[in-house]
Amino acid sequence: MQFRFISPFCIIYIFMLLPGVSYTQANTLADSNQLSIGLWRGEILRTDGHVIPFNFQTKNLAGKMIIYVINGTERLMVDQIRQQGDSLFIDMPFFDSHFALRILDDQQLEGRWIKNYGNRQVLTPFRAVFPGPERYPAPKTPDFNISGRWSVYFKNERDSTEAVGEFKQSGSEVRGTFLTITGDYRFLDGVVSGDTLKLSTFDGANAYSFESEITDTNKMKGYFYSGASTVHTWVAEKNEQAKLPDEYSQTRLKDPANATLHFKFPDLNEHLVSLSDPVFKDKVVI
What we know:
- The strands form 3 sheets. A 9-stranded antiparallel beta sheet has the order 4-3-2-1-9-8-7-6-5, with no helix packed on it. Strands 10-11-12-14-15-16-17-18 form an 8-stranded antiparallel β-barrel.
- By secondary structure, it is mostly beta strands.
- The longest helix is centred in the N-terminal third of the chain and has 10 residues, at 8-17.
- It has helices at 8-17, 23-31, and strands at residues 38-45, 51-61, 64-71, 74-78, 80-84, 87-91, 97-105, 108-117, 120-129, 148-155, 160-170, 173-180, 183-184, 188-193, 196-202, 207-216, 219-226, 230-238, 264-266, 272-274.
- Mean pLDDT is 86; it is low at 1-32.
């Protein structure tokens, strides 16, 4: 039996001559699942057809891809990213949500944003494109400058919520937030185009979009879109003295004379303990 040495260059040549396969094609297929580096525009696609947009930036850090979600001056780093073929899985930090996406090509993604709520999940369609255009286009020159503080009321079928809007506008660009007695709506980013205000934010837990008509220099009215399906109306009036109600007035004991909290729990020895036990009578408890 005779063995002949075959040059590696011959092997490459034979591979390139195989039907339907070329070196160029093989290289393209290998690169097709690599996302473009730079600014993207993502869109949360709600059930009512409304879109909540946000921008994110892909970067290569020491050979590993990371993402920065951009909301105004906020940069939220996301580094838990897994790729399996043309599938991309992105775990959002701090909050129990993730993306399960398909890489259509190096400039397009589609799939689901999956938010966990205890024992149930909400799956919302998502898509992203590169290069990312602006979060919101502003085809018209702003008719108004909304910089300053606003008294705001959010309304739904059951109740209304008081808030304070704080905005800073430069040209068409607007950044700000809504303050409430329980917190705020984080970093909002958007534009004023003509007489229309559009703002949005996304942080992994919350996907918010605000749209309104600016009826004059001192008044706005519009819609607040939250997550996959929630929507509220809202109205606002310019008020540099706007402030929230005293938060301590929002929660109080119905009967201060009977302030004992009635519940039981096991101690380290598995004995049930209650604040109403005789041992705690006339004692200060924390």
